[in-house]
Amino acid sequence: MHSSNPPHPYSDLPERAFWSKAAAAQHITNITSLFDGVPGLEACKIATAGSCFAQHIGGFLRARGLAFLDYEPAPYFIRPSEAKRMGYGAFSCRFGNIYTARQLRQLLEEAFGQRQPADAIWTKEHRYYDALRPGTEPNGFSSREELMALRAYHLARVRALFRDLDLFVFTLGLTEAWLSNRDDTVYPIAPGVIAGEFDPGEHRFQNFRYNDVYDDLARFIEALRKVNPGARILLTVSPVPLAATATENHVLVATTYSKSVLRSAAGDIAADMPGVFYFPSYEVITGPPARHMFYNPDLRTVCEAGVATVMSHFFSGAETPVAMQPVLPDPAQDLIGYEGCEEARLDPK
Amino acid sequence: MTKLHVFGDSHVIALNQGMEVLSPQLGGKAIDIDFYSRHGLNWKQFNIQRRGTAFHCSAAHFPAEPMEYTVDKPGDVYVFSGPFHSAPACRHPAWQEFCPWQCMETFPDLHVVSNSVIEDFAEQRTRRPLTLLRRMKESGYMVLVAEAPKPLTRSPAIDGIAAAVVTGVDKVYRSYVSRKLSELGIPIIYVPETTYEDGLTKDEFSATGEGKIHHGNGAFGEMMMKRILQFAAGITLN
User: Fold this and answer.
1) How far is residue A279's CA from residue A41's CA, in Å, rounded to a whole number?
2) Contact A75/B87, CB-based, under 8 Å?
3) What does pTM read for this prediction?
4) Which residues of chain B have a CB within 8 Å of the CB of A336?
5) B95 three-state secondary structure
């Protein structure tokens, strides 16, 4: 005689709750129900920021015809390769990479006049670098005045962006950071790597812990909603391992710590605060179903197929708007500045 | 006898016109000059073939006037016009929406760019001409570069770009070219004082006629040729 088990807490759970069916038995590209989607995504004005992995998101949003905000656009005469090198189009402003929650918080505070970094200019070979986004001007600025002008413009655009966006997609990348001892300003990269000089008396290392990350995210969201009460936030964690660690740990151990803290804080913030979502890009790439196949041979960067798989989950449940057509350069623009030159030929004597 | 070869883009026309005015003043001064001009787009992207000590430059961007020019007389003086043609940069319609950082306070509604953005434009436009100049210099040629006129007064209105933006872009562009030529050790014949205070070329030195939005006229060419003759041949003309 067949006897059935009495009901228990797992009896009526959906298939996605069980590893064997939802993960082990599925090819990674067939896994579903990872993400419930963002309600009303199609109508959102979307802004992105974060670590390098987040650079992929804007392009996919554009390709899907969604309203990706680009508040510091590239002049359309600049070469695409150069625009990319200068940080145009990667995010909604030319933030450069924002790796830590503290960086994000201090950016908003600076944009709205609540903090002024004491040491934000680095130099190298008579060129000047914005220490808070040194990668966006790879050759540096010609003068402090030029740097300060571009930073003022950047902050003005950041203010406008934070006021206008409906959905802010932020990808957390690191817990490790380098700070100024003068005022605790957090840099995206250690002084001396791109520009500037590392001085143990002026700079210190900090590996942010769970409470730090949670608190920075919470304070950022609170501050954002003071200027934009309806703003919603979608948090993700970059699956890209640390390139190097300044802790005494092996870089693999340091990576696991860092990503674990970020994942925990992002998940908890999403659970604790209304209008905040967590999107599992980290799980898609690093989870066992992926069998590490989405990493390039360097075991660090994510291949295109991985990014595409992540983004397919991002759009799950969303209506598909009409994709925007790429804007092609106008060949006639090549003739600008050459009007009236046709008679240039001088008959040879 | 000094032999002078003035070659390059459409700005050579004004130099030629200027020389026609100056020629009667030369009297018995020993100088021989020829001019060669082709559409500027040919000088943006052209082939450089080395043949012994000679360099053959060719392009067919505009089939109606294919470019074939050979630099082959190391003992002569070559004057090149081309790298300073900033009009494609400073008259680009993108400047209706963008401005150089130097004038951002005047135009708060425009997006702001750094010098590097303008310099990238200049780098794209001058890469081949600078390559030719470098190779000529390395091969022992005496070569100078003649600066093109600054933007004309009517150009901003025609293009719908603020005058300060046009001149701001122009300034950064020319500064980049000057720096690159200086690094190569190429002398520059700069334009004399031919602009108003706002940096735009005075009408008396501007070409007239439809489509003439960036050229100097004969008077401009005359002033430039006086400078060229002084520098290249030590000839001073009033």
Assistant:
1) 13
2) no
3) 0.91
4) 87-88, 91-93
5) helix
